[in-house]
Amino acid sequence: xxxxxxxxxxxxxxxxxxxxxxxxxxxxxxxxxxxxxxxxxxxxxxxxxxxxxxxxxxxxxxxxxxxxxxxxxxxxxxxxxxxxxxxxxxxxxxxxxxxxxxxxxxxxxxxxxxxxxxxxxxxxxxxxxxxxxxxxxxxxxxxxxxxxxxxxxxxxxxxxxxxxxxxxxxxxxxxxxxxxxxxxxxxxxxxxxxxxxxxxxxxxxxxxxxxxxxxxxxxxxxxxxxxxxxxxxxxxxxxxxxxxxxxxxxxxxxxxxxxxxxxxxxxxxxxxxxxxxxxxxxxxxxxxxxxxxxxxxxxxxxxxxxxxxxxxxxxxxxxxxxxxxxxxxxxxxxxxxxxxxxxxxxxxxxxxxxxxxxxxxxxxxxxxxxxxxxxxxxxxxxxxxxxxx
Length: 389
What we know:
alpha/beta; globular; 14 strands; 4-stranded antiparallel β-sheet; Aspartate Aminotransferase, domain 1; 2 domains; Aspartate Aminotransferase, domain 2; 389 residues; 43% helix
């Protein structure tokens, strides 16, 4: 693109209500934040257990910084692999019931490294249509052929698998979908993977720490473990409250990723202080049943309050039982206007528009945290009721 075409495209995006601008925070992540200088009640974070600013975690980070410094200095193979990195991978594998785990700097980098390492030229990838952008981009990086199946449509996926005779096949899915909040039918997907000799790779960014016994994730929610054909990617900057990601599975496939995942091999390692802090995070996740129970009660309270509003306005809730609670408005400008009206009342809920979601499905993405109170959820509901047409 040339400079003039960039200006033209930006103007078109503005006219369509599609320009995005980040707000700047002047406070720690939490329900009450100062954003662009304004105190706001925030329903935007993925810090589902409310641990990002937990005192115990901060103390662990300070101690780790004194012990290990604030940078790794090199890639893992060139001297940047510290003892906390190794301990974290071992503890993560045990936590999710896998033989081994491999850590990455971010979930995005994990997916970009994982998919091309498993699917090469002549192979075929099958991906849910609503997968996260990191999985979409990972498919684009791979030389494999790819097919998308309609969201959660196991029958169509089976038809695609039946019609395809490639030697190596890979099924990709989010566990909890980041904009809809619904959960993939992992047992049915795993049955297809076993029947059709395919890998099943599950992105559990929004389930890890929230779902399953002791927050062990969406696989544990279904009574599954990352073994055999099943691999899980989990992020450590959401419910875990710090930063990073991991992939867990059987020993040989994790060894393969260690040797072949370019985003793990050819980048500076994450600071060892973060890995050390995450060891504390795992303990807090496992001990967080009370927070998960409170979070579930908030989800029920919010949905009960939204139901009459949706009946009155034509707004639409999606069938989510997770902390991600989308309120579909439809039109881009209307969604932005609703978010702005809430902001004027001291509440921050981001408007989500294409290409993050499909045309005509712009929405508010209400994200709940275990630190939210019932009174704060009621305040959001009251504000929406006041604004509603």
